[in-house]
Design a protein that fits this description.
Blueprint: H1 2-13, E1 22-25, H2 29-43, E2 49-52, H3 55-63, E3 77-82, E4 86-87, E5 93-94, H4 101-109, E6 111-119, E7 132-136, H5 141-156, E8 162-164, E9 166-167, E10 170-171, E11 179-183, H6 191-198, E12 204-207, E13 209-210, E14 216-221, E15 224-228, H7 230-233
Helix pairs in contact: 1-2, 5-6
Length: 234
């Protein structure tokens, strides 16, 4: 049933798509459902150019016949559609479960409008139950990890084990050639402050807090699709 909710949210986001748009295509299972529901419209004649946020999304778009390009060619996008690992009522997000949050944030910030699609299980009162992804370079990893732990504890009272993300016993390598640390805080009361602080740590390339980036969200659940925006939630 969860997949159907993802499909429902993806279909709702199609209402934002117009002919001739340049669209950022997010990463993850829900964003992939958007590519799948977009493809039939493209086959029927809708003209759009997609800029994928990961190699996997790009491969899916090509397979389904959606034209793709890059930010180098199209540095300004009309719209980005992406999922979220967590979102609150103010549309603050945690992203990076698929280790694509650096590219996702770059693409989102190059867009006029950012829409989030998710099933209802992703909506929370306070961010932090989902481990916060931190993309880091391999050089000086221990020093970077120590700096992050010190910042979180001393400035925000947050303590959490920073775990190097692995798959089949080997470190996960992002599309950018970096590593990922996951921080399990439980709750993050000051998301904006933490986002600002983390951005100042050398060696930390990008964190998974998306603050004041999303414009609208389509959240699908048993009762249908809920549309929320920061203004409506204020």
């Amino acid at each position: 049933m969860t997949r159907q909710f993802k499909i429902d949210a993806a279909k709702a986001a199609l209402s934002l798509v117009e002919d001739g748009m340049k669209i950022g295509l997010g990463s993850g299972s829900t964003a992939e459902e958007f590519v799948r529901v977009l493809a039939p419209l493209v086959a029927e004649g809708l003209s759009v150019i997609g800029v994928p946020t990961s190699e996997r999304t790009g491969a899916l778009a090509r397979e389904l016949g959606v034209q793709i390009s890059t930010l180098e060619i199209h540095p300004h996008l009309d719209l980005t559609i992406d999922g979220a690992d967590e979102l609150d009522g103010r549309l603050q997000l945690i992203k990076g479960g698929g280790a694509a949050h650096l590219r996702e944030k770059i693409v989102a910030c190059a867009s006029d409008k950012v829409a989030v699609i998710a099933d209802h299980t992703k909506k929370v009162d306070v961010l932090g139950a989902f481990p916060l992804p931190l993309e880091v370079i391999s050089f000086g990893l221990t020093a970077t990890k120590t700096a992050i732990e010190k910042l979180c504890k001393n400035e925000f009272g947050l303590t959490a084990a920073l775990t190097l993300r692995e798959n089949a016993g080997a470190p996960v390598i992002t599309d950018n050639g970096n590593l990922v640390l996951d921080a399990s805080f439980g709750r993050i009361p000051d998301t904006k402050g933490l986002a600002t602080g983390l951005s100042q740590v050398p060696g930390l390339v990008e964190h998974g807090l998306f603050i004041d980036i999303a414009d609208v969200a389509f959240i699908a659940g048993p009762g249908g699709v809920e549309t929320i925006s920061p203004a409506a939630s204020a």
